[in-house]
Description:
- The structure holds 2 protein chains of 2 kinds.
- Chain A is 41% helix and 16% strand.
- In chain A, helix 5 packs antiparallel against helix 6, helix 5 runs antiparallel to helix 11 and helix 17 runs parallel beside helix 19.
- Chain A is globular.
- Chain B is mostly helical.
- Chain B is built from 2 helices and no strands.
- Chain B is flat and about 35 Å long.
- The interface between A and B is large, with 49 and 32 residues.
Amino acid sequence: MGSADARARGPAARGRLTGLLRDPGSFRDPDSSVLYDGEGVLRGLTERALADWSAFSATQLYPRLVESGKLVGTQTVDRTDVAPELADGWAALLRHERIPFVSYPYEWTFRMLRDAALLQLELLLSALDEDLTLKDATPYNVQWRGTEPVFIDVGSFERLRPGEAWAGYRQFCMLFLYPLLVRALRGVPFQPWLRGSIDGITPEECRRLLAGRDLRRRGVFAHVYLHAKLERRYGDRRRDLKRELRSAGFSKELIRVNVRKLERLVRSLEPRHEESAWTTYGAVNTYSEADAEGKAAFVQAAAEATRPRLVWDIGCNDGRYSRVAAGASEYVLAIDADERVVDRLYRALRAEGIRNILPLVVDVADPSPALGWRNRERRTLSERGRPDLTLCLALVHHLAITRNVPIRELLDWLRSLGTALVIEFATPEDAMVERLLAAKPEGLHSDYAREPFERALGSAFAVERSEELSSGTRVLYFARPRP
Amino acid sequence: MSAILGYLDPGTGSLILQLIAGGAAAVAVTGKLYWGRLMRVLGVRRREDD
């Protein structure tokens, strides 16, 4: 179902559906698929999935989860609003609340993945109370409203078949537990791994990544070492173990025991290696408080002038300007390449209860690519939502000098996003710029100067306002893209 | 009757591990599982049609 033509017909009026496009990343569970109706998000269910949904939505658990924000808001679409050719094989259609910006676990921090894991386990435990279970256990089923994790796959809830073990356990290990373990025990960041492997870390890979002495750590012997051994031993044997387990009396109580243990294990994990060059940046950076206040006022004015739906704050660090922008915007993506500063920001925002800033680990010089089957299961960052306003504060010199990204390229890329811009330029006399230049061969960045920067900016953007900060080495520009 | 199973392969090793990780709670089930296997090996019990 679905075609480019269907989308060309545009967003449906509320209620009446006019065209549906299937999410190319939603195919793994053939019983339940995500569909788009312009900006709206729907889910198509087969007969079997409809029976599971009917069982789940009839429980007290379902409204409780939606009300507490843990489960995505969902309504059943009235059959009379669906043209028969759109219903195309689906027994029912559900309409979901729209998540402001879709993100992936390789863009999350340690604590984000940990909170998502705890949500997954909590939902499974409460599902078991209702004789339901979750058919999978993947972080791709968790999204965020700011710093609040939301489970988005109502199709994952199904009726528990008596005597059946937890089918999602292996997936939980590969995509939640092992990534957390390698970071907590070895200090190895999980993001590059999850970005490189859509199904996560296998038991054998995790076993090889951990050190011998990690075997003494809670959970490692069973969930990693034995798991890898058993998988090697039974990997190619096709024994009907599920049936055997059922007749041996495997019960949901056993799943419960395991899930509770996993919950305690996950909760006990803390990231190793906390400090980075950037975690203290807010406190010891080279610019003054007067400059910071000037910047905040400038960002505030730009946000009020554009009233953006989506802001990208690239190189957000402690999120000071993300917060300023958030006051006059619908949603802010606070991105930084340094996982530790983003993790710190996540904790702070969560504690403050701010719900319209999503912190993500993204290196703008190497942003998230398209991944998975036909490179369509996971989309690039900009395919998931282009900004109306982008903040590039204390960013240009790091990209241009440290990463050697040509300034014209940077501006071309920003122009291609069609976004308004608040961009800061630090002159060659700036203490930070001097430090960065000192690390590079002399003369390599001789073109790094205010005049060529302004020329390049002016050719891609119309500068509406500029302001020199009180330190005298930093200039801010507010610009809109040229048509 | 063959139950309709989920789309995800739970993995044989991963299923057994759930018994091991279950600890004391899983002892009875593990015992019955292996007892059943032993009985089948000895020919006392046949594989049920399922």
